[in-house]
C-alpha cells in the first residue's frame, strides 16, 4: 500500500509540473492549492476519490494515477 501512495504522489508532482505549477493545476482540477500543499507535505493522502477527480478533470484514462509514468 505504501508503494501506491508514492506512485500517486509522484504522479501528482508530475502533473503539477506539466500544468505549469500549483495555481494552474488547481484551476484545471478544482482542487484547492492548500489541499494540494497538504498532500505534497504528507498531511493528506491521495485517495481514490481525489484520483478520480484529477483523472476526470484532466481527461486522463481511468486508473492513470495508479501507474508510474515517465516522471
Shape: globular
Topology-level CATH name:
434 Repressor (Amino-terminal Domain)
Average predicted confidence as pLDDT: 94
Name of the CATH class: Mainly Alpha
Tell me roughly what share of residues is in helical segments.
55-70%
Summing up helix and strand content along with how strands pair, one would put the structural category as: mainly alpha
β-strand percent reads under 5%
Query: Which CATH architecture is right?
Result: Orthogonal Bundle
The ordered string of helix (H) and strand (E) elements is HHHH
Tell me the Rg in angstroms: 11 Å
CATH level 4 superfamily: lambda repressor-like DNA-binding domains
The oligomeric state of the chains shown is single chain
Low-confidence stretches: none
- Write down how many β-strands occur, each being a DSSP E stretch of 2 or more residues: 0
Largest sheet: none
